[in-house]
Amino acid sequence: MLEIADLAIDYPEFSAHYDLLVPKGALCALIGPSGGGKTTLLHAVAGFGRPPRGTLRFEGVDLTRLKPAERPLSILFQEHNLFPHLTAAQNVGLGLDPGLRLAAAQRAAVDAALARVGLAGLAERLPAQLSGGQRQRVALARALVRNRPLILLDEPFGGLDPGLRLEMIGLVDQLRRERRLTVLMSIHTPEDAADVADLMAFVAEGKVIATDTPAKLLAGARHPALDRYFRRAPLGA
Amino acid sequence: MFRMFALSVAFLATLGLTAPQAVAQSDKPTLTVYTYRAFAGKYGPGARVKERFEAACACTLDLVQTDDAGSLLARLKLEGKDTKADVVLGLDTNQTAEARAAGLVVPHGLDTAGLDLPVPWTDDSFIPFDWGWFAFVYDSDKLRNPPASFKAFVEAADGPKIIIQDPRTSTPGLGLMLWVQALYGDKAGDVWARLAPRIVTVTKGWSEAYGLFLKGEADMVLSYTTSPAYHVGVEKKTNYKAAIFPEGHYLQVEVAGLVKSSEKPDLARSFLRFVLSEAFQSAMPEGNWMYPAKVPQGGLPASFAGLDKPQKSLLLAPEVVRDGRRAWTDVWLGALRR
Amino acid sequence: MVPGLLALALVLGVVAAALAGLALAAGPSLPVVPWGYVGGVVAFSLWQALVSTILSLALGAGLALALARRTRFAGRTLLIAAMNLATVLPAIVVVFGVVTVFGRAGWLGEGMRALGFDMGSWLYGLPGILIAHVFFNAPLAARVFLAGLAAVPAEHWRLAAQLGMGPLAVFRFIDRPVLLREAPGLAGLVFLLCFTSFAVVLALGGGPRAATLEVSIYEALRFDVDFGRAGVLAALQIVLGLVLVLPILRLGTRAAEAAATGFVEARPDVEAVLPKVLDALVLALGTGLVLPPLAAVALSGARALATLAQPEVLASLATSVVVAIPAGALSVALALAFAGLTRRLRIARARPRAADAVSLAGLVILVMPPFTLAAGLFVVLRLVADPFALGLPLLALVNALMALPLVLRQVEPPLMLSAERYGHLAESLGIVGTDRLRLVDAPLLRRPVIVAFAAATALSLGDLGVAAFFGSGEFVTLPVLLHQRLGAYRMDEAASVALLLALLAFAFFILAQHFSGDGRAGDR
């Protein structure tokens, strides 16, 4: 279980206050307007930026005292997930040893992870020689070899076309079921995640305004901010 | 790339361990003489002096160099009782009072009669080894009518442009300040004020000043009456001359002394005797480009033969210089800063 | 963090030890300080340093922009390498070079006279000081600015081209932020270099009107042998220098960069007329200022070229190289440790004030007068060992420290940039220490590090070496040999040593450019 309670972060120009519970093994999609605080929430969980006040626990472990690399999680950004001067295999290998000193077994694990995300044979390519989708697959492969129980995805597939986006989300879903991973993913296109997410949280104005199953949140949960987000008329208007 | 740094650090450490030891390994005694670099270095008389002294003393002469005469005294003072020096060679009379006051030297006990010095020598702590007159040097091809006296030099409003050295950083610079002081006393400030408009620049050291002069930046430069000897002896040029002033020229006398803490005073004393000997003195003129304290039997070299010589010499007593220098420097600064 | 703290401790420790050594040598009596004189000197020092800094940065920025826009013209590589030579030449050689060109009987004056104009004597005073300081520092500024411009991500150029930005817009939105980002740190460095400049200010300043505090410190050590006064004046200079520079460093506001990386992209303002004219003018001005004095040095050096074959020249050459290369490497290593620490404080710890303080500490060595550093260290080292047995390593260490501020200026910006681009990723993967340098920072760092290494090595080559102050004379480096020849009337032979120094440094810079891949390439 990922527990986020009373988690407050203050920036000069922005302050946020979050409450959210994600059961173990669940996939929770974060939706909401740009600038609403989705990335801030993910960064707080990952350990970037100003340290927050409040409760942030995973499986009962307090995360706030841990350095980013020590937290039981991997994070994927929208871009810059890969170092442009390292090959796909090297980028994945960083997940096993941050100094890239890999034993034979670890190299095998890298190849297996690349194969699992559908990139067998592309291990020696540089990021510039891969497509956008392939680059995110490399990042996913790295998350796999790191073998952390929580995965954070910050608009990971925003730059991809709709078909590819669905395919990638499907891959994430498969992987989390295989490995019992908890996933927290922000997404601009809520309908893409509707079928795979167990939980959907609407984040705006620095708060988690509503949490529910995707079906209910997309259909019925009524809130002015949510209405504005979906551009529908408020109830009773 | 980063391995390189580790290697370089290791390399440095190795250098430290293998740095050559200054002391020669032998049963012969070693006499340590502190001197300035120009004396001991490639172009100075040091090598010849070492060779000639060692030929007779059954000892090793270790010439330890400092940057210049200024740091020679500073180093002796810093090392105090622990100094390795037996003899210090290369201070001048402007520094001897400081060295004596700091208790760095002991009387040499040598007979200094018969010196070829233009002033009587009575100092019992130091013996002179060479000397020279400060003078303004000019290119006689360019400056046809150099001033004939210090008075004319000072008073000619459109007289020659000059380059001098700062008395706070340079021995000749200090020499000129004392020269003016010796000639004019309380009026020194006025003299400096009159000279000021014709001073092209004031440099940190002799090299800058002389180099700028050779590049044609000024008509005259503060140097020594012996400077033309270099141009005659080495370059075969006779156009460089020193202007001789009948009022007198200030002297620089370079001296050597016996360091108080020396454990080999007898050997040190024998070196001081050697300093006044033919073997040492004959190395001075074309080694240090100064007059020897005792003219060798063969006389001065040919390059010195044609040099003009002042008739009168000026030299303030070391203690007078020590007491007055600060105030005189302020006068100098006041006149030139305006 | 640990290497950074060690580097910080080393720098501060050396300075503190030197001051403590002077205090120890001085004894208990309070030194007499000529406050009135000091006040006047400081006022002039400030004035000339301020003007020198502004001019150096202005010309440096112009040169950097011109070189960034004009990526291929005949002699570009040579010009960049030549510009760097100014830093390595001993001050006295630069004075001679400047005077040969701009002096009373110099090329410019004689040329104008041939055309019927008599320029009279205009050099000595502020003009001479400014020419020499701009000669020293404008190329330095250009080098740092150029590195900053080279790190602009390709996306920005694509965007600029896409939006149809004109040259003014390109300058306003892309170049200016880069220049402003680098300017404060650079200004601090140049200001301190000029504030403490000594031989140049005296020789070209025309007299004691133009002097710096260092003259008084020198006097206190050499003639008064008053260690207390030297120490107090040195401390005063350190405090003054740092107090003056702190606000300059504070001006620095780094806009966090959130840009992507990519491949080399052409600037869109290359073909426009206005930049073409400006670049031509700036390149002409820069070339006209930098090359003739260097040519003068080369010409006078050529007159006694044969003396370079003498065994003592070869011995000095070997000594210099043996000192300079480890010194350059050590300097770069120290700078990386230092910059790593400031980066951590600034970004991960969000402690910009602490980061500023550490940056400032990296400059301390600049305001420490070399002779007080030497004398003080001498006293302290004598307590534990024979300073002369430490010989070459000590010389290399001190040279490395002297070059540190310069190197820091070149490696700090790319390290920050790398943190802005990959900081989060590296942190989340736990890539730290040398792994981070090797795997994350290396692409952005490689070029600046190679160039900085060349610069630091060249600087050590040309440095007289403060260890020479009390040196045992066993180690005659090239600059020492040069001064020996000057002191022995051998001006042309000295110039040939200067020429050798310049050629050696030139070779270093050409190699550095070759190995770092010249051009505007950002990441590859």
| Radius of gyration computed on alpha carbons of chain C | 23 Å
In total, how many beta strands of chain C? 0
Shape of chain A: globular
Second rung of CATH, namely the architecture of chain A: 3-Layer(aba) Sandwich
Beta content of chain A comes to 15-25%
How many domains, in number, for the residues of chain A?
1
From the 3D structure, determine the CATH topology of chain C.
MetI-like fold
Radius of gyration of chain A using CA atoms only? 18 Å
- Unreliable runs of chain A, pLDDT <50, ≥5 residues? none
Specify the biggest β-sheet of chain A: 6 strands, mixed
Strand content of chain C: under 5%
Low-confidence segments of chain C, given as residue ranges, are: 255-263, 518-524
Instruction: Specify the CATH homologous superfamily of chain A.
Output: P-loop containing nucleotide triphosphate hydrolases
Largest interface, with Cβ-Cβ < 8 Å? B-C, 78 and 81 residues
Give the SSE string of chain A: EEEHEEEHHHEHEHEEHH
- CATH top level assignment of chain A: Alpha Beta
Family (chain C): Belongs to the binding-protein-dependent transport system permease family.
Membrane topology (chain C): Multi-pass membrane protein
Keywords (chain C): Cell membrane, Membrane, Transmembrane, Transmembrane helix, Transport
Protein name (chain C): ABC transporter permease subunit
Give your account of this protein's structure.
Chain A: Belongs to the ABC transporter superfamily. The complex is a heterotrimer of chains A (237), B (338) and C (524). Chain A is an alpha/beta fold and 237 residues long. Chain A has a single domain (2-23, 33-41, 56-157, 176-208), classed as P-loop containing nucleotide triphosphate hydrolases (Rossmann fold, 3-Layer(aba) Sandwich), CATH 3.40.50. Chain A is built from eight helices and ten strands. Chain A has helices at 38-46, 88-93, 104-116, 132-146, 162-179, 190-193, 214-219, 224-230; strands at residues 2-11, 14-22, 27-31, 53-58, 61-62, 73-76, 150-154, 182-186, 199-204, 207-212. In chain A, helix 4 runs parallel beside helix 5 (162-179). The longest helix of chain A is centred in the last third of the chain and has 18 residues, at 162-179. The mean pLDDT of chain A is 87. Chain B starts with a helix and ends with a helix. In chain B, strands 1, 2, 3, 4, 5, 6, 7, 8, 9, 10, 11 and 12 form a twelve-stranded mixed β-sheet that branches. Chain B has 15 helices and twelve strands. With 338 residues, chain B is an alpha/beta fold. Chain B folds into two domains: 23-131 and 252-305, 3-Layer(aba) Sandwich (D-Maltodextrin-Binding Protein, domain 2); 132-251 and 309-337, 3-Layer(aba) Sandwich (D-Maltodextrin-Binding Protein, domain 2). The longest helix of chain B has 20 residues, at 318-337. Chain C is mostly helical and 524 residues long. Chain C contains 19 helices and no strands. Chain C has helices at 2-26, 35-69, 76-85, 91-102, 107-114, 126-150, 154-162, 167-195, 199-205, 213-222, 227-250, 273-302, 311-348, 352-367, 370-384, 387-429, 433-462, 478-487, 491-516. The model of chain C is unreliable at 255-263 and 518-524 (pLDDT under 50). The chains are: A alpha/beta (237), B alpha/beta (338), C mainly alpha (524). Chains in contact: A-C, B-C. At the B-C interface, helix 1, helix 2, strand 2, helix 4 and strand 7 of B face helix 4, helix 9, helix 10, helix 13 and helix 15 of C.
